Amino acid sequence: MSSDRDIAANRRRFLQYLASSPLLAAGGASAFAETLVPKAKLPDPLMWAPLDATRIIKSPKEAINVFDLEPAMRQNVPPAHFGYMASGIDDEVTLRRNREDFLKFQLRPRRLVDVSKVDMSVDILGTKYDSPIVLAPVGGQRSFHDDGEVGAARGAKAGNHLQIMSTMTSYGVEDVIKARGAPIWLQLYATNSQGVAEAIVKRSENAGCSAVAITVDRSGGRNQETLFRLRPSDTRDCSGCHDRTNLQTNLKGRAMFQGLDLAGLRNTQSSNLNWDRVKRIRDATKMKVLLKGILAWEDAVMAADAGIDGIIVSNHGARSEDSGRSTIDALPEIVEAVKGRMPILVDSGFRRGSDIVKALCMGATAVCVGRPYIWGLGAFGQAGVERALELLRIETYAMIQQMGAQNVKQLVPAMVRRA
Q: 3-class DSSP state for residue 295?
């Protein structure tokens, strides 16, 4: 017979397996909460889940961490739209790794330093922002709330955050920049058409964008199983917004594709993207150019050698492939290989201030967050975005104080170690 120790160990492994599900680990535990531990504190590693997953907050001020916003979003957002946001790829190993791999690293707090005032400001490509927290690009934000990218921009303005807008934006770049009241960055899906890519870049530059981040990890199809499982439960008639049989018709409803000649466009993926195409895009704009989706140090070095202005270490929030490589695990070797030749941003899986500080200690210039502010947007619109960002700032500030740092520049590799 199994010993009590074996039973306890098996139970922990089972709970860890459940916790790795995007519908649970991301905060949406309500589907399982009553079966597992109704109205009780969820056991480790579900510590980040709401105390009572069946209780949904009624206002953004009730949220005590970003995970509290996700059940409220799920209640408000149609199943297919929620599934699109929550999905990873295939077995969603990478989706789980993006959270679990933060446990591989421990911070080393320092004491007896006056941290009564902490300067969280950072310089990113020549522009100063009040914190190192950046809004990652997320497409089609009006599918989560009518405020969409404009509401996210106003939320970013409230905390003076850098905002990166997706090519698949619901609102045009001009409207988003007006709402932000400052330049933003464009995230570019280069598609299979160089002409379309350059037209989107030129429009964004003319509107006032200061940088373009070319996505390099959407080179093929993706099996978003969580989306596909939730889509059948969505009873709405979606044909008015989506035409899955005709790409050109579908994209005409996307703000950044309106008015473009889409005749030669076969897909929005960039399977033909290479260094030559990147150079041609760079030659077509005066904006700073970054590459988003770097996971291997070799590619980072090649980007630096090619004079690229910066990179974003990213696995697309585990939405482009299921390699199992988390960005926090990839970050140290990339920082070491680049040797300070260009700024390095990072995204995918960041949910806590301690997560952000770990990346900053490793050498990241800034950290991009996606799902947390989208949870806030879907739950409460602009006010939810503001609350999500506020919570992340509060946690980050407190953790920087614990590190004995008076500013972000004082966060150094010696302050973090592999567990």
A: coil
Q: Are residues 34 and 141 in the same domain?
A: no
Whole-angstrom distance, CA of residue 168 vs CA of residue 172? 10
Question: Is 95 within 8 Å of 370 (Cβ atoms)?
Answer: no
Beta bridge partners of 346: 313, 367
For residue 313, what is the enclosing H or E element? strand 310-313
Catalytic residue among 81, 145, 161, 316, which?
316
Burial of 74 per CB tally in 10 Å (0-12, 13-18, 19+) = buried
In a domain, 99, yes or no: no
Q: Are residues 291 and 219 in the same domain?
A: yes
Over the stretch 181-190, which tens digit does the pLDDT of each residue have?
A: 999 999 999 9
**Is residue 2 a part of any domain in this protein?**
no
Is 90 a member of any domain?
A: no
CA neighbor of 291 nearest in space, from 398, 216, 222, 231: 216
Decide if 184 contacts 256 (C-beta within 8 A). no
Q: Report yes or no: 136 and 368 within 8 Å, Cβ to Cβ.
A: yes
Indicate if 242 belongs to the active site.
no
- Looking at 15, 33, 55, the residue that finishes a domain is 55
CA 369, 373, 378, 379 torsion: positive or negative?
positive
Cβ neighbours around 109 below 10 Å, total? 12
Instruction: Please indicate, yes or no, if residue 71 is contained in any of the structural domains.
Output: no
Position 226, amino acid: T
Residues 110 and 216 in one domain: yes
| Among 45-54, 138-147, 269-278, 313-322, the least confident range | 45-54
Q: Are 211 and 289 in contact (CB under 8 A)?
A: yes
Residue 261's CB is within 10 A of a number of other CB atoms, namely 11
* CA–CA dist 354, 315 (Å, integer): 20
Same domain, 142 and 238: yes
Q: Do residues 26 and 70 touch, judged by C-beta distance below 8 A?
A: yes
Number of domains in the chain: 2
Q: pTM (2 decimals)?
A: 0.87
Residue 397, domain extent: 105-418
Same structural domain for residues 377 and 279?
Answer: yes
Give the DSSP letter of residue 163: B
